[in-house]
Specification:
The protein is α+β, with helices and mostly antiparallel strands. Helix content is 20%, strand content 36%.
Amino acid sequence: MVEFTSRDGKPLVKREITLADDTALSLDVALWGDRAKLPDSKFERNPVVALKGVLVKEWNGGRSGSLMQEGHIDFHYAGVEAQRMQNWWTNSGSTAEISAMSVSGAPSAGKNARWLTLAEVRELTGRFSETTETFNVSARLSLVQTQKQGERQPLSYMACSAPREGSTLRCNKRVDETGRCPACGSIGKGESRLNIRCQFTDSTDSTWMTTFHEGAVAVLGMSADDMRCLESQSLDELEDKLRQLYYSIPLHLTVRAKGEVYQGEPRTSISCVNARVLDCADHGDRLLAEIRHTLGAPSA
């Protein structure tokens, strides 16, 4: 449960839960007010729940829900769906690989998003698009920027953990030394987040991308708290640790291309918003399909 104050001074209480069902998909849903204040014991041991009146919104390719004021959450629903969910969870669901539809504000490129090489990604920076597009890229981490113009570059920061008003997304603005957020005015304990600049490499090119928290955690294989501890060490120790990660594993990157105006000039900003270990079998099948398409051969 999180208590915070909205911009207009109204006290708010929120709890975010993650729902999963036998489609092996999950959705984050925000509970507000008295529902958020339910004891933790109500949510322990993965109970089967039924919700009515959930507002689902799409944002940057992801989905999240919020239980409306007139909605309802039932921990004792006895319908056939509840029994089906319990059977699924007991037999296979508790160990199944669940795919998240809600990714903490980070867009996810769906199965239908295009796959690009890094050479094609680099070409996008020379264009300007009024729409935001998301792509898939397979590459390896080759460098993390730890210095800029001779000055040590921070890789983590403390962010406001209060939810944005009317949203299930967190504020995530940088807080000051006292924990106060200059954006939403809330005061509380900030949470560590990563924001790093990475160079990725594939067989066609190398490209620098700003890599936001979710992607950075996956790329580095460490939490923001772990990185803050590492940053307390010398620069040589930090770089030695990072060097062990370079070219180590193939990654599936979710890349966002967004048009913006910088110093009066239109450009396209390229950033990595999510990452995970590349599914080599799936990637091989996709490359094989491309070869068949090029040769005009029927698909397998």
